[in-house]
Amino acid sequence: MSDETNVPLASSLQQVVGALVFGADHPLTVEEIRTCLREVAEEEAAAKVFAEATPRDVRDALAAIGREVERLGLGVQLTEVGGAYRFESQAACGRWVRHLLRQERPNRLSRPALETLAIIAYRQPIARSEIEGVRGVVVDHILKALMELHLVRIVGRSDLPGRPFLYGTTASFLDHFGLKSLNELNEMDPTLQRAKLAERKAAHRRKRETETTEGAEKAEEPEADPVKEVLGPETAPADAEPVHEPPAASAAARDEPERVP
């Protein structure tokens, strides 16, 4: 007999979905929620009423939860990041949450790091030489630091001579910038359009033509500590972007605007 025999059954799918998102230790996808509904129904006959919920049913429940939480003005919101859902504190409440958790303001990404990250985000998969061609400077140390911050990762190798590594953004990149998917990059600035994946892959399958080295030499940036270069000066400008915290750290440690599950 179930330990919850005397506990009344949830009255709606919205109630169940809200509890799952609130109780989860990570953002939940629609399919994770549906899997949970089916598995519980296999164990308890009374729970079968929610077992056949479709993806649209779950999304409708999530949308209703989001509207209700916003209407109540509780200082939290339901957010979709990288295709998964979680509850977060509202940005306007960040200073109090950070003080409660005794979290200091994090360092922030420097302009060179943001420029490099933007090039990768819009043109991925992309080789280091292509990034340097756009920026006009060597980016080895910046790439290394962005990878240490879990914002960039190696996604493969090009078929061009030398088979250079190809770089792309991570799920943590979406989390950090609050994006549902990479498609939202186009909406942020209509003048910038993300490169089509098929076209980018095709570019790395083409045979490289003979390149001439006459003319320009890349201007190299002075030697610098890679992490320091990315984090910038101790006192960052007020409009600088916050550095991504590793998944294990509390999201409340982010600078404003921030969200805390």
Keyword list:
261 residues, mainly alpha, Arc Repressor Mutant, subunit A, 2 domains, three-stranded antiparallel beta sheet, two-stranded antiparallel ribbon, 5 strands, 40% helix, 10% strand
What this model shows, in words?
By secondary structure, the protein is mainly α. It folds into 2 domains: 13-89, Winged helix-like DNA-binding domain superfamily/Winged helix DNA-binding domain (Arc Repressor Mutant, subunit A, Orthogonal Bundle), CATH 1.10.10.10; 111-244, Arc Repressor Mutant, subunit A (Orthogonal Bundle), CATH 1.10.10. The chain is 40% helix and 10% strand. It has 11 helices and 5 strands; from the N terminus they run αααββααβααββαααα. It has helices at 13-23, 30-43, 55-72, 94-100, 111-123, 128-135, 140-148, 171-177, 184-188, 197-203, 226-231, and strands at residues 76-81, 84-89, 126-127, 152-157, 165-169. Strands 3-5-4 form a 3-stranded antiparallel β-sheet. A two-stranded antiparallel ribbon has the order 1-2. A hairpin with a 7-residue loop joins β4 and β5. α1 crosses α3 (55-72). The longest helix is centred in the first third of the chain and has 18 residues, at 55-72. Mean pLDDT is 77; it is low at 207-223 and 226-261.
